[in-house]
């Protein structure tokens, strides 16, 4: 229901407002155009092509230039870009300056493509206000990933932004995620209990989604069954080995949308040479075409 | 057991090595000196005394100067300092520069006092490596707070640092924490299940502790019962209204140590005037003296 509403609204708005403002509208438009791939800008200074290290002697410039070229080469194939903050924080302030410039570049040149800041934050409400200010105001992100452990009340500083999307960690893609996420709560695994809480209660402003790893496709199906209306951010295809076909088939909502398939390393590091951006573009095209073929 | 081991070691090492290197040694020394208070450097640019805004026209300098004066005024009363990253991130890069300078100042002038970076991070292992690099190498923190939701495997990049301490969120101080943390898992609340996992399995290098809010003192007692060996980082006294007496009585380990009582706003914002540092020092002395009286 929320999806069909959003789609209708975005279609109606399109002629009047060329650049939709809310994350929900941006995503609905990209899905309508058959775009489901998200490129994860997990750009690690140590792993950049060596010619960039030579051409741009400082961390900030080389990280930004890498991102800029990846974005230009892949933008036409994506539903969203998702920088993970850890890869920038590890380079200290120069890394975060590169992230800020990347977000500014995206907002200026690709205002229709949502920026999902993969931050996985979660603090008490008073403190989450600081993070929300950082992500939404300072970096200008359209969406953010958050932890569920402190409950809905703590997340209100994120959830109250009706024009943003909040993706709550549900079933993560890592091998050890089951240790906590599959603990049985009232007869069902914790991750399903959380999916249910988000669907039934946390999504009051129609701006909340879930993170569900492609490495556990059967669990994506279980999540989709209890959370029919929530967009799913699905990491884990590519280097982590998640299965694209079953992740997609299990994740799509009843309108044939509602999924964001993230791939990071296998796209951004498709080549270590001077052709890295071209190779990333080709890999993004390949995955995007494969997704379109599977969805049919 | 691990505590008595650590204590013995630190006593033996003291004459040879004036500045102990590991977080465990630093904490054991502070506890031995009767110091259990932690000052939370949750320094919000908007809340600084107005004379600092005038004297230091940029964010970085005024935030750092505030921290520097608070640290100098309170250091003799504390077991640790705990900056929460959200308050710096909300001011963008200038805020993080102030945090970096604060950590550098602490390491240079107070190398015996552990820096606990309150980051509450939690990502997959590959990504947590980036955060560990940021916190331990770039900022030089002695300890960090993390989320339990992705399981032990994801936390290995933190846990593998035997000289650092990792505080896992267990029972948080916020009013809505119970929504997830008190879900029943095999007949016990999730937070106790996590306390048990950390005590029995995650603490393999004797460097893991738990976060347990002073606002729920009975639950601190329940945590201490299943986790006799783990240090407890206890936020929530002061502005959040947690009860110091019961938090302490319920949290102390069998050696009369093992607790870090954090207070942030009620100390760092004790006065809005030019006497803010003096007022913070007096408030820290008051709480530290009260703690000593309660412990007896």
Give a description of the structure:
The structure is a homodimer of 296-residue chains. The first copy, chain A, has 296 residues and is an alpha/beta fold. The first copy, chain A, has one domain: Alpha-Beta Barrel (TIM Barrel). Chain A contains 14 helices and ten strands. Chain A has helices at 2-13, 23-32, 50-55, 59-74, 85-89, 92-109, 125-138, 151-159, 178-181, 190-202, 217-226, 244-251, 265-268, 276-295, and strands at residues 37-41, 78-83, 116-121, 143-146, 165-171, 184-185, 188-189, 208-212, 232-234, 259-263. Chain A has an eight-stranded parallel beta sheet. In chain A, strands 6-7 form a two-stranded antiparallel ribbon. The first copy, chain A, is globular. Mean pLDDT of chain A is 93; it is low at 1-17. Chains A and B meet through helix 5, helix 6, strand 3, helix 7 and helix 8 of A and helix 5, helix 6, strand 3, helix 7 and helix 8 of B.
